[in-house]
Structures are given as structure tokens and as C-alpha cells.
Design brief:
The protein is mostly beta strands. Helices cover 2% and strands 44% of the residues.
Length: 457
């Protein structure tokens, strides 16, 4: 009885060998094996080899798939037709693409060292006179045009935030914070904060131990207050003031610096005491994440309270008084307009002295001036007011020199009977810290409108 063999292929027959030599499947060249039936040929065959076949990553290139239309239920996002021009590359010398941001009918491309704009579904052509025209084209990603300026987003796409036609981001490698708008790229870190960002952005990458540590630069936009919020986070960063006037205890705020930029003020308006892990605005409200928890800002009547914790550190504002910058002068008074309860925590004036062949900077310091109504007993036992005095809706106080180290305990907040009667401190300019602190931490609203002084040249 002949042996029955199952054929695993269609349109084929079997040739058997003699003995145990096996058998072979032979594909029939004619469909169904019909006599003079339609035949098939071999078709296209590869005629070359690729010895470096494998995955290749192009960090400076973009690729797009087929369209997705939810209305017609068309989903071609898994199709990448090689018959069409579906890739677009930018200059690889400017680094990898870190961020893509679609804006109207354009695509903003943020590389490590360059920012460009690509046209979407259109191309730019030029007339014989050199005038640019925009026409519809078949390319999804059209011509790429670079913005003026050698700036990029480095390796920190998390610093990107936008509102309206303004985009904000950080170029850590160049130590600047930038804004991209209709007038192009502009470093907004130059608004009084050039040295600050140049020094601190450099610390975000490297740890003090010498190894590489991944720092973060979280950028977000607060639509409610109209501020670009930037949080620099790295273990080597140091926060603001640590010591309160009522206690020598310190609150650890190291590891981050959070601050805000306002378009209305054209400057960096404040440091903040919270450390977000991201943030966003929605329906005119500002939200940030602390770890995995989401918090809504500007929703509590208690100020200086973030993430359900009331900060014990005081709020403070630092001023630089510099009238008559080229002249040595005596700063005689300090005046402010605002809420009751502000104190002057520090006042220092600098003078450059010529000592022999070298120049030496000498600092004169003033006594701290407490809030309104603080009194002490002088050497004769008479009560004297050493705090701010209220006259015609303005608080003022005289500046008096601080007794040198070792002669008096000037840090005891005037709880001593020895006062230097010398009026004013001398220097080219004076730095002043105005401080407000509530020991109970009730976080009430306080205001500071203006700070001024009287000088004598």
C-alpha cells in the first residue's frame, strides 16, 4: 500500500527519493497546475546586501505617520510609507531635538544649541525680487527656518512653558533664561539676574563630590498672577535667608531655588519657598505637584503656606540704594510706606579705601531697626524708641552705626544699653534688607509700597 504524505504547502507537489533519502516539495509554476495555465515568475529579488543592518537613531530628524481622523474613524498612525517624503532633518551640529511645540500652522523645534521653526502643510517660496510667499504643499513638515541667535534648550526640555505667543525655556549650557515671541529670542535673565543664573545654572549639572548628578529645571506658567515660574533643583543650591529675628534656629531650604518672572514688571519679582515637581495652569488657576500630590495655589487666605506647611522663615525684600553713584555719601535715614510690622534686618554701605599700594573695601553697618513701637532703656534708665516711627502715613528711622564686634551684643535686637550715637553710615551704595516675620505664623497679608532714604554728600 502506497505511503500517504501530507503536503504543507499550496500549489506544490512532492518528489520522493529512493530508499530513505527523503522527499522535496516542488512549487508548481502554473496556478493549480493546469496545463497552459497562468504562470508566475520569481518577481523582484534583492540584489544587494547591507552589512550594517540594524537600528539607527537619528536624534536630529523627525518622521511622521499616516493621518488620524476621529470623525471618519480613519487611523493610519501605524503606517509609514517609504514611497512618500516622511522625514525632515535639522542640522546635526546643533545637537539633538529636545522639544517640539506646535503653534498654529508652524512647528517650533528646540535643539540643544538652536531653535528653529518649520512650516506645517505648506512651503515658502521666493519671488524674483526676493519676497517670501507661503503656498500649500504636499509636505507635512515644510521648510525649516532658524531663529536668530545661538541659543538652545540644552538637555532641559522640562524648563519649557508657554502662554499665548510667548515661550519660555532655559539654556543651561549658556547660563541664560530665554523668551521666544514674535520678536524672536530674548534672554530675560539679563533683567537684573545675569550673575545669578550664570552661577546657579552651572551648579545644576555637577555635584560637589565630583560625580555627575541629574539636576532639574522645572518651568511652568502661572496664568493667575501672570508669571513664568522656574524652579532650579540640585543638591548644591542654597536657598534664601535662614535665621529669623526671634530665633537662631534655621529652616533647611537647600537644594532648590524657585523664582518668578513677570512681563508686567519686566523682571524677576520674587523668590518662593516651595519646591514643585511640575506645574501647570488650567481655567485661570495654578497647580503644582509636590511628589505625587496635586496642590492648587492662591486658594488660601494664609500667606507663606505651601503644601499644607506654614513656613517659619520671614518674608524679605533686598534693596540697593545708589543715588549719586560716584560719590561717597552718608546714608542718614531709612523710610518705607506699607503695612505696620516691617523691620530693617540689615543695612551695609561699602567704601573703597586707598591703603598704600592696595585698595581695600570697608563696610559700615547700621543697627537693625525693629518694627514700630519697640523701646529700650538707655544708660540713664530713660525709655527710648528705637523702632520705626509713623509720620504722615510713612514709617521712618535714623540709621546709626553698629558698634564693632566685641564692644556690644548688637545681635540681641537692642536689648542692651550701649548705643552708638554716630548718625548714618558712609559708602558709595547701601544694601538694605526689609524683613517681615510673624512669630505665630498666621500668614496675614502685608504690603510694602516704597523704600527710600535721605543722604548727605
Amino acid at each position: 500500500m502506497p505511503k500517504q504524505i501530507e503536503i504543507s504547502y499550496y500549489n506544490a507537489f512532492i518528489l520522493t527519493g529512493s530508499g530513505n533519502s527523503g522527499y522535496w516539495h516542488v512549487e508548481e509554476s502554473r496556478i493549480k497546475g493546469d496545463f497552459n495555465g497562468k504562470g508566475t515568475d520569481y518577481g523582484a529579488r534583492a540584489y544587494t546586501t547591507d552589512e550594517e543592518y540594524g537600528t539607527r537613531r537619528r536624534p536630529n530628524a523627525m518622521i511622521y505617520s499616516g493621518v488620524y481622523n476621529s470623525k471618519t474613524k480613519t487611523n493610519n498612525t501605524n503606517q509609514f510609507s517609504i514611497a512618500e517624503s516622511i522625514t525632515r532633518a535639522v542640522d546635526v551640529s546643533n545637537g539633538s531635538i529636545q522639544k517640539l511645540h506646535a503653534e498654529d500652522t508652524n512647528l517650533n523645534i528646540f535643539q540643544e544649541h538652536k531653535v528653529s521653526r518649520a512650516l506645517i502643510d505648506k512651503d515658502a517660496i521666493f519671488t524674483a525680487e526676493g519676497q517670501g510667499l507661503t503656498v500649500s504643499g504636499a509636505n507635512v513638515i515644510g521648510q525649516v527656518q532658524a531663529y536668530t541667535g545661538k541659543f538652545g534648550i540644552s538637555n532641559n526640555p522640562e524648563s519649557f512653558a508657554y502662554y499665548g505667543n510667548r515661550k519660555y525655556f532655559v539654556d543651561r549650557q549658556r547660563g541664560v533664561v530665554l523668551r521666544l515671541s514674535q520678536d524672536g529670542l530674548e534672554p530675560i535673565s539679563r533683567y537684573g539676574m545675569t550673575d545669578f543664573f550664570r552661577d546657579n545654572l552651572e551648579k545644576v549639572k555637577f555635584s560637589q563630590s565630583g560625580g555627575v548628578e541629574k539636576g532639574r529645571l522645572y518651568g511652568m506658567y502661572d496664568e493667575r498672577f501672570g508669571e513664568y515660574i522656574l524652579s532650579l533643583q540640585h543638591s548644591s543650591l542654597v536657598g534664601g535667608k535662614k535665621t529669623t529675628p526671634t530665633s537662631s534656629a534655621t529652616t533647611d531650604q537647600n537644594g532648590f531655588l524657585t523664582l518668578g518672572f513677570s512681563e508686567d514688571s519686566k523682571g524677576w519679582v520674587s523668590f518662593y519657598s516651595y519646591k514643585p515637581t511640575f506645574g501647570f495652569s488650567a481655567l485661570n488657576q495654578f497647580y503644582t505637584f509636590n511628589g505625587t500630590d496635586l496642590y492648587k495655589h492662591h486658594s488660601s487666605e494664609t500667606y507663606n503656606k505651601f503644601y499644607n506647611s506654614t513656613y517659619s522663615d520671614p518674608s524679605y525684600v533686598t534693596f540697593v540704594m545708589n543715588d549719586g553713584a560716584s560719590s561717597i555719601k552718608t546714608f542718614r535715614t531709612i523710610n518705607y510706606e506699607g503695612s505696620n510690622g516691617w523691620s530693617m534686618d540689615r543695612a551695609e554701605a561699602e567704601t573703597v579705601l586707598k591703603l598704600g599700594a592696595t585698595n581695600e573695601i570697608q563696610k559700615e553697618e547700621a543697627y537693625k531697626i525693629p518694627e514700630k513701637g519697640v523701646t529700650i532703656l538707655d544708660a540713664n534708665g530713660v525709655t527710648m524708641d528705637v523702632g520705626f516711627k509713623l509720620r504722615e502715613s510713612k514709617y521712618y528711622a535714623d540709621l546709626k552705626q553698629k558698634i564693632p564686634y566685641g564692644l556690644s551684643d548688637y545681635n540681641s535686637n537692642f536689648n542692651n544699653n550701649t548705643l552708638n550715637t554716630t548718625l548714618g553710615i558712609k559708602g558709595y551704595h547701601m544694601e538694605v534688607d526689609m524683613l517681615y516675620h510673624e512669630p505665630t505664623g498666621n500668614g496675614k497679608l502685608v504690603e510694602l509700597f516704597a523704600v527710600s532714604n535721605e543722604i548727605k554728600i
